[in-house]
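Researcher: Please translate sequence to structure tokens.
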Amino acid sequence: MKRLIAAAAFASMAMIVAEANVRLAPVFGDKMVLQREMPVRVWGYADPRETVTVRFADQEKSVVAGDDGTWLVELDAMPASCEGRTMTVSGSKPDSSHWLNGFGLWAAKNATNEQMIEDVLVGEVWFCSGQSNTDCPIWGNGPRYRDGHGALTLQMTRRPLVRLVKTPLVWAESAKMDVQAKWQEMTPELFDSFKKGGRMPSAMGYYYALELYNALAIPVGLVDSSWGGTNIDAWMPKSGLATRPDLKDVADLPVLDAAAFKKARENGGVYAGKNIYGSPQQQPTVLWNGMVAAYAPMSIRGFIWYQGCHNAGEYQRYCSKMHALYNGWAKEFQNPALKLYFVQLAPWGNVGIPYIQEAQAQFDAEEPNAGMAVINDVGNLADIHPNDKRTVAKRLAAHALKRDYGYADLRDNSPTLKSWKIDGNKFRLAFDDADGWYVYNPDRSLQTGFEIAGADGKFVPAKIENLVWYKDRRSGKDKCDGNIKGTELIVSADGVASPKKLRYLYSRPWFGCLYNESCLPLGAFHIGE
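Model: Translation complete:
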């Protein structure tokens, strides 16, 4: 009988010991990339008050787990490293060693209470998030939701020092810490993974990571947490909403389970009539909870963001919501210098597009750590999802290279209006970030999207007066290649002798065609009485 009791106790203790093994948070895994030149936070779970030791790159840091079993250590800042090294986390329980020794378990426990992750690099880490234009894969089954060059790009690209994570689609009522992160190398095997049913990484994120690697030649890690058809509200943590008193009505909305949400939508509850909250995953904070919170407070350089279509009808509040998003992420990732490089919406046939574009531009002007990529020249009026994500990523990467990686001479900003005046029947417009101008339309026309109105408020098409014209030798006709003289834009409209208002890209087809010397397009704006 004593033998049976002892055996039962041994089995019970073995189970407890197995469950008590120290472990890293699930976002830490084989092939991951750690952020260089910043203290690196590493965390996980253990028994309450257990001593946990993390070893990596000749560093050893120890901490005692809290009463809830959570622990966090901070490794010293490290330089970039292309060497795949092992991170080891181990735990010990000196307070319980005597009791465990009664069953002869301490030696076995000490030998197994350890977790290792292999092939860990140190480089630049970025987070990629947003709705369908972010989630749009490098390659996929649906032609609308894939990049046009993805199949070839996947097969031709072998960058094993670039590591990618595709976060599963999960919304949650509270912070979900067990998100499974599988780090994958940027190699042609990704294409094989797709053919076997795997989810492809974001095309925008893929090209962005590739641009950074090609420029820096150090490891790059990119976490992709994106979900089509979602609003910005779902990605904001509560801490971000708390920074914007004007969004208190959003912060006060309850987070409901799927059944309660459906009932609230159908029966006149709190979500009834609120168009941007049409499904459970669109409730405020739920995608932060389900797809981002588990990664915080990971050390990262910043995040790239492409969203806004779902919120286009509330452009008056979108700038404030962008602030809430940024403030919350910077707080939760414990990085007050966190960078946010985001994409201004492309035209897709919606008459409200210039209004939310201007709201995005306003946030860009107000947040020093933000940078906006203007892409009004790559839209698609037949589809809200423009296929060209390489251009999008290149313009986002220009911000990072200029502001974070020492490319001091790079022009990364699209032009923005600096000043203006009315001179007779003309508007004279001066801009920042424009040392030169040219017009380009695919049909080679010189239509620019400017409109001017007089006292009657009626807008009519306008023209740029300081285009450079010359006599074509062959035809003898006046010709213009789209070049513009000087750094100002001088704009007038036939029949408007006393102009009062001017706007740019406020009418169909909304496509940008004015570029600075770095081939970056001018975004929508309006001025005047």
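Researcher: Any highlights?
Model: The chain has a mean pLDDT of 91.
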